[in-house]
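Lab notebook, page 48
Experiment: co-folding of the full assembly
Goal: obtain a model of how the components sit together before planning crosslinking
Operator: M.T.
Materials (sequences as entered):
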Amino acid sequence: MTAQGIYLDNNATTRVDPEVLAEMLPLFTEQFGNPSSMHGFGAAVGGKIEWARKQVQALLGAAHDSEIVFTSGGTESDNTAILSVLEAYPKKKSIVTSVVEHPAVLALCDYLEKKRGYTVHRIGVDKRGNLDLDAYKAALGPDVAIVSIMWANNETGTIFPIEELAQLAKAAGAVFHTDAVQAVGKIPMTLATSAVDMLSLSGHKLHAPKGIGALYVKRGLRFRPMLRGGHQERSRRAGTENAPGIVGLGAAAQLALMHMTDENTRVKALRDKLEQAILAAVPNCFVTGNPDNRLPNTCNVAFEYIEGEAILLLLNEAGIAASSGSACTSGSLEPSHVMRAMGVPYTAAHGATRFSLSRETTEEEIDRVIAVVPDIIAKLRSLSPYWSQAGAPKEFAPVYS
Amino acid sequence: MWNYTDKVKEHFFNPKNAGALDEANAVGEVGSITCGDALKLMMKVNPDSQVIEDAKFQTFGCGSAIASSSALTEMIIGKTVDEALAVTNRDIAEYLGGLPPEKMHCSVMGAEALRAAIANFKGEEWVDDHEEGELVCKCFGIDAAMIERAVTVNSLTTLEEVTHYTKAGGSCQTCHEKIEEVLEAVLAKTGALAPPKSHAPGTVGLDAIKPLAPKAEAAPAKLTNVQRMQKIMVAIEELRPQIQRDGGDVELVDIDGKDIYVRLTGACSGCSQSAGTMMGVQAKLVEALGEFVRVKPASLLPAGA
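Observation: model returned without errors.
Model output:
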């Protein structure tokens, strides 16, 4: 438990690991050279960047370190991947993606559809957030340039069958990209033997700093850069390297590989303990997504008849940081597109609360959360017109709905 | 994280008058489950004095929705029904020390619940005029439906017009792309973007007739008195070297509308050519001002001026 409280919002961002920070600090002071420079100042930094590239390669199980392109983060990686493929295959005019993608993919696809004349096939999910495979197969065809499907969902943690999807895409002649921002570091990967062509990852989701990420580009894949300029990253991403960030990401990748087992055993057990305790203590709530196939650190519980922002404010008051799919936290008027895509009723979608753990989470913290959540839910329900004292939902039909 | 005021936090963490009011005789239920907030306002109104003796609420919603509900009950208890009707959503927001722009709709919900409850007390039917749509301009809380309506009703065609009519996009300007999308969608629907129809052979459409070219001698923009005076002074200054070469001089004495009084001095004074000199000054001033003026000798100045 840190001084600021219990942090269970690791799918939003993670704390920079102190070891990562220690690796980064010299890059701001002594090793400040530009890796493109011919002198010794630059050479020292260039060596560190190549070390970092190898760490990311190892985390992804990639065949070559040159397949790693450092970017500013997940969004840039996603945009680069999709735009590169569309430019490399100008005659193909279709894109396949899913309805539950991150906005970094969805909003770009919306834009390409509206302004650039592309056809976008958005594959739906069932009530547990599983992809509709029949619809996916039907959408693949000779006109599809790229398939972009996330490895694991950020809100529910639900994992998609990426290898199967990638092979199907390949058979149809499409490039397969996956937004693996939530999955990297939590799921073991061997991209060397995989059909995945491109993969996006983000540093700040795995204890590296914000503003650094990477795009995996399989050797031999046609590539068109989004940022043109200098020769950095083998001309695939121009701009002077974010050397401290890159070295931080390298250190974080090394640590993630080291903690992979812990993440899938101890952290997973803590997540399960939290979830089971909440389900046992609180009536009218359920787990969203697919509980049998999801990230080890993520748990998303929908509390019926109350609203997520109010839950978060009370949790915050108790020193607990979580996240919600509620509309009110984002300033939009509708609850999260992921909850709507799964057909979660509005009365529950607004109360969807995400607890995302990390290797820094302790059992003591989980016990504390288990102790306070039931009272918070009960307090808000006592205010809700949809909830009666008997504990069951009551008839309430406001004028407009 | 929203920047809620302390007052909002106070009313959220410790809401006043939460719960059911069994003896209520005025109930208003409003809200939108898709938008994530709904409010049931219950009031006990004294039928004789019309005073709201008690009020309670139940709210499904975010922090500011609960705080707005709590504030509303505090504001109306003790007021008569007619006094309560004067409470607007702005009053609720002000009572709370302000709400983030995206959260103003919470105060609107409170005001609507109040009107619904009063209508219920009076036995009237309450009809809401709630707009629902994607929030486009967060600064002013303008949604897509309102922009669409403004565009359709007023035949707007440009982003600037939308901003003038609805305020949307007038502050931080980050929503301009969204406004243009809404605009394009409406224009496409109404056909305002359709290409002009071709005309029958041998005829000319109105749109083919060019507007008349502006008149070359069109009056220049009207000068302010100060600008006019400066122009006159400059013109006279420009004339002086020429007159001085003849041993004379000219000075501006007064300006009275179209009448400009000057004094010729030196050799000019009493010179037989002075009338011609005055004509020259007049021609110069007419040219400089772009309007007709009369130049008169200072001796003709009306007495007392």
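Interpretation: The first helix of chain B runs from residue 6 to 13.
Next step: discuss with group before ordering constructs.
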